[in-house]
Amino acid sequence: IYGGLKVVPGAVPWQVSLQMRLMNSNQPFRHTCGGVLIESCWVLTAGHCIGQMKDMQVVLGSLSLDTEEPTEQILKVEEVILHENYRETSQAAYNDIALLRLKGTDGVCANETQFVKTVCLPDAQLPDGMECKISGWGATENSQYGTNHLLDANVLLIDQEKCSEKGIYGSVLDNSMFCAGHLLGGVDSCQGDSGGPLTCEQNNTNVIYGLVSWGDLCGRKNKPGVYTRVTHFLDWIKSKTQAASSSAN
Ligand code: 4AZ
Known about the structure:
Elements: E1 5-6, E2 15-22, E3 30-39, E4 42-45, E5 54-60, E6 73-82, E7 87-88, E8 93-94, E9 98-102, E10 131-136, E11 151-158, H1 160-163, E12 177-181, E13 197-202, E14 205-214, E15 225-229, H2 234-247
Antiparallel strand pairs: 1-11, 2-3, 2-5, 3-4, 4-9, 5-6, 6-9, 7-8, 10-11, 10-13, 11-12, 12-15, 13-14, 14-15
4-(aminomethyl)benzoic acid is lined by residues 188-191, 193-194, 212, 214-215, 218, 225.
Domain Peptidase S1: 1-242
Protein name: trypsin
Subcellular location: Secreted, Extracellular space
């Protein structure tokens, strides 16, 4: 996160650290991407966060990556569901969304606490110019390798037409994504924040409106962050989570 501040305990209780290590290696798990807890057994993340041949864990209730905190819950992943039309080009990622079904018993995976909570799905588009929040452990203006402490920042939803102008992203944008940030630069998501939340307030409730997806570097003028448009995938999310939770968990 560029232009961010340290998150206080419990302020972003749906934030996930998605951690990976090479299969069968004895290396420790390393933070790879963000994610978002939407149900006790379901995490949303970016499609491009799903590498192959990786051993994966999901860490909830964490602020500091290098310390074991009493608020943490560490869960294994039972199933990875990558969007059927996920596609990456040199410029953009399309349909950049995946679901992780967590391992649990009797339909309970994450336990709700003050530090671990689900976030609601949105039920409609929100207005351009609205202020929303992004968070993550990704690169900052001072550290390309990311931060140990979770950071967050406020960004503005940017009109799709505006963001599709030639001097911004032109024709690479589609309806599976939207832009948010500050066209003057400075405040943005960055590498390592991918898959993590962009939440906004809708009817006095925080909703997960975007997932950190891509951008032309970070924090640059006229190159805002691009986010997976969660409202575009509501039916997909519902079909996948309902189909699976009726049989398993
Ligand atoms: C990345 O490389 C990345 N400024 C994520 C977000 C943004 C740029 C790059 C948005 O994962």
